[in-house]
């Protein structure tokens, strides 16, 4: 089976919304490790030109404001956040109200009973947390400090539909030991008939930006060939931390029924906001 992928960039300053369209957006950041306030200020600067009606869903990377490459539980401890009142969550609540948009952002979480997870929050346009999702498949850097989350989830969210969340490694084979064609994440969401997959990424560079996007598509193959139309929104980061370089490639892809449509993407050196009118 041959699958075509359209390479179409979408201008970030094109904000004309039609009655039937939606406007998902990815904010691709170059954060500095352990500089939470400065990283939030970077995001604020990128987003200041947008207002209510310009964006319906804003997605930021995995551990967007803390940085990612922590090397011990002791090192990350000052940056662990509560799911309701942590700095990343409070930023997301404020931005959701300002934009009148859903906001999804990744952050390192510590629960009330002291358990630590690599998590994301989903905030609705009223500034209410509607979901905390915890990364199920850990990457090697997560294993220094985080527990595995309880597993993949597909849930109905008013205003978004049937939604599934991924944090980076979730779309890979478990511990890189499972069979590549097991497609654990994609098969789960195919079975659940998920229609929107939101990915918060800190994906490491392994080639050019389109090779990264092609790999993500490969990992989602059961959704590509499935009967449901699915929208995949992935927000990755860029830059280098402790010798680890991140891939960029934040994108929006429509898939299903053996077809792909790459609606827009950001390059590996672009710190910017991608807004796609779908």
Automatic annotation (TrEMBL):
PROSITE patterns according to UniProt: CN_HYDROLASE
GO biological process, one term: protein catabolic process
Domain of life, source organism: Eukaryota
Signal peptide range: none
InterPro entries per record: C-N_Hydrolase (IPR003010), C-N_Hydrolase_sf (IPR036526), Nta1 (IPR039703)
Domain CN hydrolase: 22-278
Any one Gene Ontology molecular-function term assigned to this protein's record: protein-N-terminal glutamine amidohydrolase activity
Entries under PANTHER family matching the protein: PROTEIN N-TERMINAL AMIDASE
Protein's name according to its UniProt entry: CN hydrolase domain-containing protein
Organism for this UniProt entry: Lichtheimia ornata
């Amino acid at each position: 089976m041959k699958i075509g992928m359209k390479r179409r960039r979408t201008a970030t300053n094109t904000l004309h919304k039609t009655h039937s369209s939606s406007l998902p957006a990815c904010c691709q950041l170059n954060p500095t490790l352990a500089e939470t306030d400065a990283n939030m200020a970077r995001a604020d600067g990128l987003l200041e030109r947008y207002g209510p009606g310009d964006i319906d869903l804003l997605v930021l990377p995995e551990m967007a404001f803390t940085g990612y490459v922590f090397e011990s539980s002791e090192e990350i401890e000052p940056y662990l956040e509560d799911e309701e009142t942590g700095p990343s969550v409070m930023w997301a609540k404020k931005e959701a109200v300002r934009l009148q948009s859903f906001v999804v952002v990744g952050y390192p979480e510590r629960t009330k009973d002291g358990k630590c997870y690599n998590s994301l929050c989903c905030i609705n346009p009223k500034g209410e947390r509607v979901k905390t999702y915890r990364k199920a498949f850990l990457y090697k850097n997560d294993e220094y400090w985080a527990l595995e989350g309880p597993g993949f989830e597909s849930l109905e969210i008013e205003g978004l539909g049937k939604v599934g969340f991924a944090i980076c490694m979730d779309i890979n084979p478990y511990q890189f030991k499972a069979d590549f064609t097991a497609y654990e994440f994609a098969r789960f969401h195919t079975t659940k008939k998920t229609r929107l997959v939101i990915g918060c990424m800190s994906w490491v560079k392994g080639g050019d930006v389109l090779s990264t996007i092609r790999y993500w598509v490969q990992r989602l193959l059961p959704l590509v060939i499935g009967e449901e139309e699915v929208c995949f929104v992935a927000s990755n980061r860029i830059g280098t931390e402790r010798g680890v370089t991140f891939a960029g490639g934040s994108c929006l892809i429509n898939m299903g029924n053996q077809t792909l449509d790459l609606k827009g993407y950001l390059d590996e050196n672009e710190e910017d906001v991608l807004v796609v009118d779908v």
